[in-house]
Amino acid sequence: MHRLIAFDLDDTLLLPSGELSARARSALEQLHRRGVVMTLASGRMLATIQPIVDALDFAPALISYNGAQVNLSSDTPPLYHRGVPAALSERVIDYALERQLHLHFYYQNHLFTTDIDDWKARVYREQTGAYLEYEPDFNRFRGLEPTKLIIADHPERVALMLEECREMFHGELTVTRSKPMYLEFLHPTVDKGAGLEALCRALEIPLEATAAFGDSYNDVEMLQAAGESIAVENAVPEVKAVAQRICPANAEDGVAQVLEEWLNANDE
Length: 268
Prior knowledge:
The protein folds into 2 domains: 4-81 and 190-267, HAD superfamily/HAD-like (Rossmann fold); 86-186, Hypothetical Protein, Haloacid Dehalogenase-like Hydrolase, Chain: A, domain 2. It has helices at 9-13, 22-33, 46-54, 86-98, 119-128, 155-168, 192-203, 220-225, 237-242, 254-267, and strands spanning 4-7, 37-41, 61-64, 69-71, 80-81, 102-107, 110-113, 132-134, 148-152, 174-179, 182-186, 210-214, 228-232, 245-247. Strand 4 and strand 5 form a beta hairpin. The model has no long low-confidence stretch (mean pLDDT 95). The two termini are 12 Å apart. The chain has 10 helices and 14 strands. It is an alpha/beta fold and 268 residues long. The strands form 2 sheets. An 8-stranded mixed beta sheet has the order 5-4-3-2-1-12-13-14. A 6-stranded mixed beta sheet has the order 8-7-6-9-11-10, sandwiched between helices.
């Protein structure tokens, strides 16, 4: 039995509706009772992970903001937090404003956006349940260190910007995609894999004793760091390429199926 299991949320552990199934909840709770550290690992901010936490009868460990913050539970201080340096944040802001792009700025567990009525803000709100705060002048954020920034746009435009921004910020920022329409900017040492490593150090659990489930580009490093890596069938090719195993899609509760398999094997 693994000592720690990390789960991406959207399109992995959660159903396409964004809900946690009763089957998955039962498996998570059984594993917790057997002493396994259950860890929710998401690009989401803490506030939008909380509804999943509230659905469980225990307090899971949390890797949020794509690994920029790690908490033993949602009501304990961060074990680890690493924001975007102010000078680099300002360059991302300039890049977005010059091109009139839709920008999200995450600071002290608040989410600010340049246009709260834009369709991209509406989609983000529907997908995550996040509360977005309107800020007409992003220049007031100069000198601050946000936890992360996101540019939201049509997937084909984000794909082009991904390569451009990775070249522009090479060695200075982690630039990734959590979903096809979200381009994320993080501290250069931040990703879900680094978040998993930080949590394991704090709990004195070797990475070899961990497992991780994921589906999207921002899960690659976490799957590479974990002792056992599982991609859901609906994962992007880049994730499937690094996973040791492919399980059924999230629509089929694939993660729950694997957890039940592990529980049954441990009972034998």
